[in-house]
Amino acid sequence: MTAIEFNYALQTNTKTLKPFAMRLTKNYDDANDLVQDTLVKAFLNKDKYADGTNLKAWLFTIMKNTFITNYQRMMRKNTIIDTSDNLHYINSSDSIVQNDAYGNFANEDITKALEKLDDTYKEPFMMYFNGFKYHEIAEKVAIPIGTVKNRIHLARKELKDRLKIYSNTQTV
Predict the structure, then answer these.
(1) With the C-alpha atoms ordered 32, 34, 40, 43, is the resulting torsion angle positive or negative?
(2) Which of 70, 86, 117, 144 shows its CA 20 to 30 Å from the CA of 8?
(3) b/e string for 50-77 if b means 16 or more Cβ within 10 A?
(4) Are residues 125 and 72 in the same domain?
(5) How far apart are alpha carbons 53 and 64 in whole angstroms?
(6) At CA 130, angle to CA 138 and CA 143, rounded to 5?
(7) C-alpha R_g of the chain
(8) CATH number, domain containing residue 111
(9) Is residue 95 assigned to a domain?
(10) Which residue in 65, 67, 59 sits closest to 25, CA to CA?
(11) According to the model, what pLDDT value does residue 148 have?
């Protein structure tokens, strides 16, 4: 593939890169920057492109890797490292006052919601909650694995409806 053909192929694939960049960055300007970085890297590394392979997939891979690298770089840059001598204060729980009232109310409501569940749903749900695998639950309860999955799903749905008061709250 000549340089002109490669450049033309890059230009024709630019439109397909932008939606993917928007999904990754969730920001119009960052997406445009990511597309530009991808095209620059592709152009600089055109000798590594194997002629006859899927150029679009190659560009998407470059874009994904560029995004991940930039994200990791940003996370490292935002990490604060404290080199002070008073590190024991950072992890000290002596100055923290716990208020368990919210947690106690939530636990009571969860217990009540679980008690109101029909036993056909509660038993598989509680077994799954306690760490049993689907196939183990199916064997113990003697029902098909699809039925186990369905009952756990329905139990979750019912609990979610009963505990929707907690859906938009944050624990303090």
Answers:
(1) negative
(2) 70
(3) eeeeebeebbbebbeebbeebeeeeeee
(4) no
(5) 18
(6) 10
(7) 27
(8) 1.10.10.10
(9) no
(10) 67
(11) 93
Distance CA 58, CA 68 (A): 16
- Asked whether residue 74 falls in the same domain as residue 105, the answer is no
Considering the domain boundaries, does residue 131 fall inside one?
yes
Report percent pLDDT > 90 for the chain.
43
Extract the tokens encoding 151.
């009952």
Contact status, residue 88 vs residue 118, Cβ threshold 8 Å: no
Q: Given pLDDT bands bounded at 50, 70 and 90, which one contains residue 97?
A: low
| Average pLDDT rounded to a whole number, residues 154-159 | 91
Residues in the chain: 172
Give the burial class of 34: count Cβ atoms within 10 A of its Cβ; 0-12 exposed, 13-18 middle, 19 or more buried. Answer: buried
